[in-house]
Amino acid sequence: MGKFEINPAESQLVARLRQGQSRAVEQWYHLYQKRLLRLVQARLPSIQDAQDVTQEIFINCLQNLSNFSEQSSLWTWMCSIAKHEIADYYRKLYAKKVLQLLPLSDFLPVNNLHSSTELAEKLECVWQKIGGYYRELLMQKYLDQKKVAQLARAQGKTEKAIESELFRARQAFKEAFNELED
User: Fold this and answer.
1) Long-range own/partner contacts, residues 113-116 (CB < 8 A, 24 or more apart)
2) CA–CA separation, 180 vs 175, rounded Å?
3) What's the CA gap between 55 and 61, in Å, rounded?
4) Rounded to whole angstroms, how far apart are CA atoms 21 and 168?
5) Closest CA to 123 of 174, 49, 89
6) How far is the C-alpha of 45 from the C-alpha of 42, rounded, in Å?
């Protein structure tokens, strides 16, 4: 395979964007906005979210334009950034859902976190740390919203045993979260 060559018009546009020319920014935005919005909208639940994420993608692209090496088309590079922004959207959504569903927010110091992405990353570390049975139990109870009786039947245990295990799982979650705070 030969080396990719960016087309000359696109290369000129990139050079003008790097120079900070406002007319170039307008041209670039109008050239890609509808196409990018369609791409994002196909992957997100609402048009409002898609519009917000699309704006974030454009901002992120401008902020990272110095990293564009012109080894692909500008559109391909923008799609790569879009992929990351969409993943961030779902990480943030997941973090919010977890905090809403887990009765842990009363004792977790989430006020120290600067963003939903930071919270999502921290929660992923906590899930990995507690792992195994406690993770599965908390997920079934709070994300799948299963009743203690359902969990007990499924595992062949008493409701009291499940309640005790849930208590220990919440404690393990809290301890893992607090360890990351230190």
Assistant:
1) 116/91, 116/92
2) 9
3) 10
4) 58
5) 174
6) 8
Q: Which tokens in the block code for residue 49?
A: 């979210």
pLDDT one-digit tens code per residue, 70-120: 899 999 999 999 999 998 888 777 766 666 566 655 555 555 555 566 777
Which of 141, 142, 147, 134 lies closest to 177 in space, CA to CA?
134
Q: How many CA atoms lie within 13 A of 42 on its CB side?
A: 7
Task: Please give the radius of gyration of the chain, using alpha carbons only, rounded to the nearest integer.
Answer: 23
Report the sign of the C-alpha dihedral through residues 81, 83, 86, 90, in that order: negative
Query: Is residue 51 within 8 Å of residue 37, measured between CB atoms?
Result: yes
Please give the DSSP secondary-structure letter assigned to residue 156: T
The owner of tokens 């790569």 is 80
Q: pLDDT digits over 125-170, tens only?
A: 888 888 788 888 888 887 777 899 999 998 999 999 999 999 998 8
Q: Which two tokens stand for residue 135?
A: 């993770």
Chain centroid to Cα 78, Å, comes to 17
